[in-house]
Write a structure and sequence with these properties.
With 298 residues, the chain is of the alpha+beta class. It is 44% helix and 20% strand.
Length: 298
């Protein structure tokens, strides 16, 4: 066997072996979710964008607060254009702080306050403040502006039609804000490659997402302490039929060698309890990190 043929053979063998290992990881993930009374969508991009794993990736999943990530991207793109400033002050009235919705802003400032756009984005993303979200949408001019931003950046299969106030009015409304897992992972990669924002806006949003305090038992739940994860969660209510419309987490996990893993896990129409729903996500993230930690240590 000539040296050239040997190199070709070994390269092909390595490629087939790697594909087999990725298939094994996909099979492990599928075995985790097959017994669950829920629809679980998974999309993963890793190993310097060479590997993709998709499971139930093309269904339309309700995003819930995951939609605050593209909203934040849109706001920061307007900052980059000079239409807003991060230190621009926004007057928040008590009437803007709706009751019966998750809102750390309202809890801290029940009578209203004046707050910079940067602080509203931090509350909206890192603490998933629903009132903060709707304040940002009003500044932008509505959900259609966010959809336009996504389309301008070649991101399809993400629909943002209603705000948080509307979502809380009726069960079915939340399904109008939907995405496919693969679309959300593509959005994460496009953000990470910094194709959408200025360097300053990118760094601001990255720090905000790393500091996210919601969903600690999801992507981050079983990862080693200190693992860097920039992520955004989304959670629905559970209805009187014991169905939870959505328990979601999307994010970017940074391996010890600095390589990113892009992951979106959307758990929809689940009859499982909240602990199980979150563990589905953390189990998938754990297996994914373990696999890519092994192959990056070779």
């Amino acid at each position: 066997m000539t040296k050239r043929i040997l190199i070709i053979f070994l390269t092909a063998f390595s490629y087939l072996n790697t594909n087999a290992q990725i298939d094994n990881l996909k099979n492990e993930i599928e075995s985790l979710i097959k017994s669950k009374n829920a629809t679980v969508g998974v999309s993963i991009i890793a190993d310097n964008f060479k590997d993709t794993i998709n499971i139930n990736e093309n269904f339309h999943y309700p995003m819930l607060s995951v939609f605050k990530f593209p909203i934040a991207l849109t706001v920061l793109s307007e900052v980059d254009k000079g239409n807003f400033k991060l230190n621009q002050k926004v007057k928040i009235l008590s009437k803007d702080l709706l009751p019966d919705t998750w809102s750390p802003i309202r809890e801290k400032f029940p009578n209203g306050t004046t707050m910079t756009i940067s602080d509203i984005v931090k509350y909206t993303v890192a603490q998933s403040d629903n009132n903060g979200c709707d304040i940002l949408l009003r500044l932008l001019g509505g959900t259609a502006v966010v959809e336009k931003f996504l389309l301008q950046n070649q991101i399809n299969d993400i629909a943002i039609k209603v705000n948080e106030e509307d979502i809380h009015k009726e069960w079915e409304i939340q399904f109008q804000n939907w995405a496919t897992p693969i679309a959300l992972t593509n959005l994460l990669t496009k953000y990470y490659l910094n194709d959408m924002l200025s360097k300053r806006s990118y760094k601001f949003l990255w720090k905000t997402m790393v500091e996210t305090s919601t969903g600690g038992n999801r992507i981050k739940g079983q990862l080693p302490r200190g693992t860097v994860v920039a992520h955004k969660t989304g959670t629905s209510f559970t209805n009187d039929k014991n169905v939870t419309a959505a328990v979601n987490d999307i994010g970017i996990i940074i391996l010890p060698n600095g390589s990113p893993i892009f992951i979106s896990v959307l758990v929809s129409n689940s009859a499982e309890d909240s602990v199980t729903n979150e563990k589905i996500i953390s189990d998938i993230a754990k297996k994914t990190l373990e696999y890519y930690s092994r192959i990056n240590c070779r």
